[in-house]
Amino acid sequence: MGDAMRYALLAPGKRLRPALVLMACEACGGKIEDALPAAVAVEMIHAYSLVHDDLPAMDDDDLRRGRPTVHIQFDEATAILVGDALQAEAFRHLSEGIPDPSRAIAAIRVLASAAGACHLVGGQSDDLSAERDQAAWVEANQNSSAAVAPLRTVEHLESIHRRKTGALFSASLAMGAIVAAADEKSKTVLSDYAADLGLAFQVVDDLLDFTADEQELGKRTGKDVDRGKLTYPGLLGIEVAREKAKQLVSSARQHATYFGEAGWRLTRLADFVYERTQ
C-alpha cells in the first residue's frame, strides 16, 4: 500500500496546487514554511482524485503523467484504497501540521468543502452524466446533422469545471491566505484570481487534448473526443477556446497586481498556465 501511495503522490507533475498554497501565503506576507502542511494536503487530495478518476468505472485511463495509472501498475482494488488513504492523510496533515487550532480548522473546512459533493466530486459526477447523456443522444439521433446534444452549453461546461477543477485551485489559495492570517480583501482578490486561473487551466487542458503530442503531454490525447466529453474546443472551436483562455489569464494577472511585487509568482504562474504544453 505504501509503495502504491508513493507511486501516485510522487509521480512527475506540475504541483500547481501546492505551489498556489505557498504563493498565496507569500503574497499575503506569511512564511512559506508555515504553509507546507496545507500544500502537502492539497496535493494528496489532487492525487487521490486522479487515481479514482482514472479507474475503469470513470474515465478509464491507462496513462497518467507519462506512467501507467495506479490501477494498471497495481490493480483496481489497490487504486481505490490508495485514493481513500490519500484523502484521509490529507486531513491528518492539516490537523497536525498547522499549529494554530483556529487556522487548522479553517483550512480543514476549506479543503473538505472543495473536495466534497458540492465541488470536486459533484463536478466529476456531472461530467460523467454529461458524457452518458451525449452518448445516449447520439444513439437516439444518428441521422441528425447536429454534432452535440442541445443541452450541452458553455454555461454547463463552466459549471462542471469550476467545481471539478476550479474548487481545488480556490482552496489552495484560500489555505495559503488562512495560514498567513490574510485580511478579507486579500482573500477576496485571491478568490477572484483562482476563479479565472482554474477555468483557464481547464480550457488549456481541453485544447491540449486536441492539439498536443501524446508523449510530451504524458497522457492519452484525443480521448475526450472519443468519449464524447463536453470540452471547450468541442463547443467553441479551437481558436475561440484559445482566446477565452488568453482572456482568463489576462484577468488573473490583473488580480495578481493587487499584491504588488509580492504577487509576482502568481503573475508568472498565470502565464505558465496559458503557455504550458503538458
From TrEMBL:
InterPro entries: Isoprenoid_synthase_dom_sf (IPR008949), Polyprenyl_synt (IPR000092), Polyprenyl_synt_CS (IPR033749), Prenyl_diphosphate_synthase (IPR053378)
EC number: 2.5.1.-
GO cellular component labels: cytoplasm
Names of required cofactors: Mg(2+)
Name of the protein: Polyprenyl synthetase
Alphabetized UniProt keyword annotations: Isoprene biosynthesis, Magnesium, Metal-binding, Transferase
Keyword Phosphoprotein found: no
Enzyme class: transferase
Superkingdom of source: Bacteria
Pfam families to which the protein is assigned, alphabetical: polyprenyl_synt
GO biological process, one term: terpenoid biosynthetic process
Signal sequence, start to end: none
